[in-house]
């Protein structure tokens, strides 16, 4: 019984809540608190709407959606008649209200309710209602029985009467389906519309049809709600992830700065300790000097006092005997060395070495990496089709959730192509900003469909289905060629060797001629890896360019970057490469060497080294030249031929020698060399790129160990030297000499 009363109480509370304006908490009625339905399906009384409307719009106080209200007229929002039925339910359920008969004028208490005509009847009117032939078919129930059963809205639904003159008490039971009408009708109105050719149906029929349609929409809304819940779960996970990542970043920042502060504190303590130690040492020396001078002064004072006493009270006989001794003591005092000043330099000065540079660099210490990019607003421009072996461009424009363009050039954006097998083809170089869009260039190596994949700071930004269909293949003459690339490598055509000489009028042989065709045989793929100088191994004696592709022994407009801190492990007067080579390997890159001698170079004068170390980099990093720890190409003064030469070394064994030029002042060189590192021939080949000539080969290279590339430049006082790396997309074509097996 108690449970039933609780359920009824909850039902009453629910009805009361639904029949109350959520903004002013007033019960809806038929006059000033009429319920009105907003397009967002929230309900407000007309009084609240009148207060909230402004500038021809109204903002829903519940969901903050803006709705148009022409001329600030809130009467255009439809009335919600479902609240009228709720009020009737509350009237019956409430013990504080007395229901009055709707038929007579006696204000008698209603005891019955007619479900057909929806009138409350007192006992006398009920008798009349029952006896009247017109109402005999009506369904009448006592209020007592009505309250004892489960109350439904159907029990209290009021009929809708036609308001046209002459149609009084005519219930609207029909609905006109014609587009120009779309309204409910009584029987008399229906006859008029039917005669006009309109389509009129029973209102129950259209009600069932609309309810069925709304039921279908309700299913869609329920599905949408589940989708929203799923999306909210993802967003909540992201919220939690952002908090964790932010907390982790804060912890990392605190740890890093605390470590810096601790290091500075230790350095401060060491400096102060050194100052105190020097202070104590200087004071010891000065105080010892002061004490010595005090003792000397005391002896002088004592001698003077003794002489004055002897002069006054002297026994001449004894005085004459002791006078020589006294004279000697006075002589010693007169000849005593007197310091003209302090025995030590007392100057002490604290010089804030590097503190000014540190203070200037403080605003650049640390960096917060984040992005406002919003995947659904990301714009991608790319060709639908691209030929294999030729470059194709992908343009990406990042936008935030407000659809504003993000044009930060420092965004760590990676654009790649993903094949059907999952193979990833990366851009040959970092994305470049161009006209507000990030540009990436690819050279596909095989046919098929490639999906465009985008990531920002390592996080995928995929909300699209953009693809590139790669078709066809490139040819050299009638013979196909295949140069494959690892990661961010790029395909490029074969370069034909330049003839050593030719007679006047004789044409050079082109690719596809008999001689060159004989040279073309099936061969392994050649990789052109994209890499740069690794600044974490940079020596403080050399300089790098901003793109880390140029190494110089002097600061220039191209190479001006020095290590910001002293690297614990650095290459002697040089820098290491950012990759290493290991089997399987057939990799090619180019190195431009440019030097100018400011004075004559002599024995032991070096210009540069190019090395491939087969030891661990930790062992490779030493305070000496590394040529005996690696396969090396060394440029410098040659004692054998007294000029500048390039010598090839297999560790401590000389394996090649190439003259480069004079060793005298103003001599210079500007030449590009190609280097092929191939495990199939266990060799390192050096090629003159301009002449297409194979210069030397270092054989017997063991590829069971990784080869670490390193580069060094020397002689800043005697010469200018620059090494420029050409890798990946920097290489336009590969010398044919490299490809011949």
TrEMBL record:
InterPro entries: Bbox_C, Filamin/ABP280_repeat-like, Ig-like_fold, Ig_E-set, TRIM45/56/19-like, Znf_B-box, Znf_RING, Znf_RING/FYVE/PHD
Keywords: Metal-binding, Repeat, Zinc, Zinc-finger
GO function term, MF aspect, one: zinc ion binding
Residues annotated as domain RING-type: 21-64
Keyword presence, Acetylation: no
The organism's place on the tree of life at top rank: Eukaryota
Filamin repeats: 363-470
Region feature Disordered, mapped onto this chain: 490-509
Entry keyword Zinc: yes
Biased composition (Basic residues): 497-509
Cited PROSITE patterns: FILAMIN_REPEAT (PS50194), ZF_BBOX (PS50119), ZF_RING_1 (PS00518), ZF_RING_2 (PS50089)
Segments forming domain B box-type: 96-143
Signal peptide span: none
PANTHER family the UniProt entry points to: BONUS, ISOFORM C-RELATED, MEIOTIC P26, ISOFORM F
Protein name: Uncharacterized protein
Species assigned in the record: Pinctada imbricata (Atlantic pearl-oyster)
């Amino acid at each position: 019984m108690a449970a039933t009363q609780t359920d009824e109480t909850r039902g009453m509370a629910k009805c009361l809540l639904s029949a109350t304006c959520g903004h002013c908490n007033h019960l809806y009625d038929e006059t000033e608190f009429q319920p009105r339905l907003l397009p967002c399906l929230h309900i407000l009384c007309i009084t609240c709407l009148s207060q909230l409307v402004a500038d021809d719009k109204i903002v829903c106080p519940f969901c903050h959606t803006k709705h148009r209200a022409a001329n600030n007229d809130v009467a255009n929002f439809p009335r919600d008649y479902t609240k009228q039925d709720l009020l009737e339910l509350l009237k019956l359920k409430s013990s504080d209200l007395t229901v009055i008969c709707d038929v007579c004028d006696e204000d008698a208490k209603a005891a019955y309710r007619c479900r057909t005509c929806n009138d409350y009847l007192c006992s006398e009117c009920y008798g009349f209602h029952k006896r009247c032939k017109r109402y005999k078919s009506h369904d009448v129930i006592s209020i007592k029985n009505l309250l004892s059963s489960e109350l439904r809205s159907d029990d209290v639904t009021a009929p809708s009467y036609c308001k046209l003159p002459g149609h009084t008490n005519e219930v609207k039971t029909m609905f006109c389906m014609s587009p120009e009408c779309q309204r409910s009708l009584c029987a008399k109105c229906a006859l008029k519309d039917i005669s006009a050719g309109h389509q009129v149906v029973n209102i129950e029929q259209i009600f069932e049809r609309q309810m069925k349609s709304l039921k279908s929409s309700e299913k869609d809304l329920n599905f949408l709600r589940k989708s929203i819940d799923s999306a909210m779960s993802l967003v909540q996970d992201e919220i939690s992830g952002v908090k964790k990542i932010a907390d982790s970043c804060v912890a990392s920042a605190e740890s890093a700065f605390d470590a810096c502060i601790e290091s500075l504190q230790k350095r401060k303590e060491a400096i102060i300790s050194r100052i105190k130690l020097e202070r104590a040492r200087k004071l010891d020396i000065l105080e010892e000097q002061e004490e010595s001078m005090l003792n000397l002064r005391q002896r002088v004072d004592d001698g003077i006092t003794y002489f004055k006493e002897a002069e006054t009270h002297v026994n001449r006989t004894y005085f004459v005997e002791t006078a020589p001794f006294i004279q000697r003591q006075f002589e010693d005092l007169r000849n005593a060395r007197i310091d003209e000043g302090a025995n030590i330099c007392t100057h002490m000065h604290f010089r804030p070495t590097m503190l000014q540079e540190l203070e200037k660099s403080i605003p650049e210490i640390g960096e917060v990496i984040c992005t406002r990019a919003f995947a659904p607003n990301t714009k991608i421009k790319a060709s639908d089709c691209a030929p294999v072996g030729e470059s194709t461009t992908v343009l990406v424009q990042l936008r935030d959730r407000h659809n504003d363009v993000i044009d930060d050039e420092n965004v760590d954006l990676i654009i790649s192509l993903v094949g059907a097998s999952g193979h990833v083809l990366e851009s040959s170089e970092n994305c470049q900003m161009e006209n507000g869009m990030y540009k990436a260039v690819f050279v596909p190596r095989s046919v098929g469909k490639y999906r465009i994949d985008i990531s920002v700071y390592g996080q995928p930004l995929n909300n699209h289905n953009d693809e590139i269909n790669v078709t066809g293949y490139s040819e050299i003459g009638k013979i196909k060629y295949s140069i494959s690339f690892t990661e961010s490598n790029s395909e490029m055509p074969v370069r034909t060797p330049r003839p050593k000489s030719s007679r006047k009028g004789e044409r050079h042989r082109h690719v596809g001629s008999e001689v060159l065709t004989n040279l073309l045989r099936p061969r392994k793929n050649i990789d052109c890896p994209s890499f740069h100088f690794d600044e974490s191994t940079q020596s403080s004696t050399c300089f790098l360019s901003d793109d880390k592709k140029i190494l110089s022994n002097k600061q220039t407009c191209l190479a001006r970057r020095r290590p910001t801190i002293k690297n614990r492990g650095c290459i002697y007067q040089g820098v290491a490469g950012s990759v290493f080579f290991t089997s399987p390997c057939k990799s090619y890159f180019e190195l431009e060497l440019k030097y100018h001698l400011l004075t004559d170079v002599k024995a032991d004068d070096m210009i540069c080294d190019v090395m491939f170390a087969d030891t661990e980099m930790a062992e490779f990093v030493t305070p000496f030249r590394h040529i005996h720890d690696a396969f090396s190409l060394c440029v410098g003064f040659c004692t054998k031929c007294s000029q500048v030469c390039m010598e090839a070394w297999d560790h401590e064994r000389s394996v090649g020698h190439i003259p480069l030029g004079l060793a005298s002042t103003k001599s210079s060189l500007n030449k590009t060399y190609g280097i092929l590192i191939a495990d199939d021939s266990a060799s390192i080949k050096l090629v003159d790129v301009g002449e297409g000539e194979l210069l030397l080969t270092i054989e017997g290279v063991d590829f069971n160990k990784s080869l670490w590339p390193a580069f060094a430049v020397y002689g800043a006082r005697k010469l200018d030297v620059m090494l420029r790396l050409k890798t990946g997309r920097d290489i336009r074509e590969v010398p044919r000499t490299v490809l011949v097996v």
